[in-house]
Amino acid sequence: MKKFGVILYSLLCILLLGACKEDEYVYPNVITTFIDAATDESGTLQKLITDKGESLEILNRKGLDGLTPDSIYRSVSIYEPKESADEGQATALLYSCQLIIAVKPVTVDKLPEATAKTDPLDIQSVWKSGNYINLILLPMAKEKSHIFHFIDEGISDNGDGSRTLHLTLYHNQNGDYEAFTRKSYLSIPLWAYEGQLTQGDKVVLRINTYEKGFVSYEFIY
Q1: What is the pLDDT of residues 96-120, one digit of tens each?
Q2: Domains, the chain
Q3: N or C: which end of the chain has fewer CB within 10 A?
């Protein structure tokens, strides 16, 4: 709510006869990651919260309004950490903030038409970070909106005192043509299972793919 933290240290040099000019441009040190974004009482993004629980106040807040007040959104953001002038609140300069799907898993009866749609797609990556399982998926699409959710298929006992939560990705192509790959970002909020799972329990996520059919990912809670 895992760190898919890709730290980009970029330095652009204009090459001339194999050498960099003295007036080379230096890009800022930015981080691209899945991260929580919190709003204030006016519905404006106020701070970023990393999956390690670190809080960074957003310096540039123009155009970040119009959201639900006092709420936390899941996002894929690009930001530059800034040093505080004192020992107070850490801050960040936000370059991009894309809000993504991060819904609590539900049982089949709560899905549209009470049907478990599992249309196939490709997977770029799946990993656990903090209180989330993060996914970068590659569905084939053209012009229609695809519907994503997570199906809660129950918790089973493992016989050794631990338990396993069984989840399946819900994907409805909505009758779309498979014309090109559309990258999609999702997160599963594992904090929704506080009180049901304990440290050391397992989470198994099933996803239907083009190449291999259903594949499973297993994580420790």
Answers
A1: 999 999 999 999 999 999 999 999 9
A2: 6-99 (2.40.50.500), 108-220 (2.60.40.2370)
A3: C
